[in-house]
Amino acid sequence: MCEPVTAAIAVGVASVASTTATVIGQAKAAKAQAKALNEQFAAVAEENRLAASAEMFERDRAARREQARIRTAAGEAGLGLNSGAVEQLLLDSAMQNELANQRSLANRESRDAAAKADATSMMSRVQKPTMLGAGLQIGSSALSAWSGIQDAKLRVSPPPFRGTPVQRPPRMSSKTSRWI
Fold this sequence. Notes:
This protein has helices at about 5-75, 85-125, 130-155. The protein has one domain (about 5-155). The protein is mostly helical. The longest helix has about 70 residues, at about 5-75. InterPro entries: Gp14.
């Protein structure tokens, strides 16, 4: 007699558990996506840092070679390293190297900002369930389960008796002359 009710309870519990598992799965997937995006951003930032460092290191080496050539040419020409022209050439070389390094750092910052904007844009597409949304999904599933249980109870139990039974006075059968 209680089998439909038991079945409805089992289906309801399974429905609520399934909805809860789905919401938890969505939250975990969103968290994993966010973590992957953050790791990707960190990798891009590190790549930008290494590229800028390598560029600046190579430029510093080139500047040192240029300054060595200036000194060598000055020595071969019989000029002293303290002469104004040689000092100006060495200072110009150092200044050009410094400006190039500043451009490298500015380019790195620009690439980092672009990577951050991309990461932020991708993060906005991550669909993480809100507490309200999760509660509404689980609550809706629970309400549906409760409704199913109530329907099963109505199908199993006899309809309630409404009113009081009517006592009829005995009557006489016309054929047999007996009281019915």
